[in-house]
Backbone:
């Protein structure tokens, strides 16, 4: 569904942005579907804005990194637990035997790998490093 042009994949001098564009080239649709399932229309629109920002930016700015962390938290179910949130209500309605659940788990793992790669490319990135530290402590 979301297709980065071959020029945009390599036009940036920011290796973190190139890695992110390459990642979403193959997984953008799956993550959009996961966002819609787990977070509803609001999360779906937010994920669309993230994909648009990745496509249009010349670097992986802090705001985009924060959105990547948000998406990772969404697909890892970190936003589930508060009975007042839409994510909790949507999660409660999912059949755990639904094949989409396994796909979301795989995408969550792959998104984690992307966050690690971004952190390796830019060790000073507090946004990503903080997320990775929080996950390793869990």
Residues:
């Amino acid at each position: 569904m979301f297709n980065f042009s071959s020029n945009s994949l390599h036009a940036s001098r920011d290796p973190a942005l190139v890695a992110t564009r390459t990642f979403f080239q193959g997984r953008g649709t799956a993550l959009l579907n996961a966002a819609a399932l787990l977070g509803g229309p609001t999360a779906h629109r937010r994920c669309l804005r993230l994909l648009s920002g990745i496509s249009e930016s010349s670097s992986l700015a802090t705001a985009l990194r924060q959105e990547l962390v948000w998406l990772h938290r969404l697909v890892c179910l970190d936003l589930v637990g508060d009975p007042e949130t839409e994510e909790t209500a949507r999660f409660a309605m999912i059949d755990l035997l639904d094949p989409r659940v396994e796909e979301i788990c795989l995408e969550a793992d792959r998104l984690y790998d992307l966050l690690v790669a971004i952190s390796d490319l830019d060790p000073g990135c507090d946004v990503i490093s903080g997320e990775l530290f929080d996950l390793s402590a869990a």
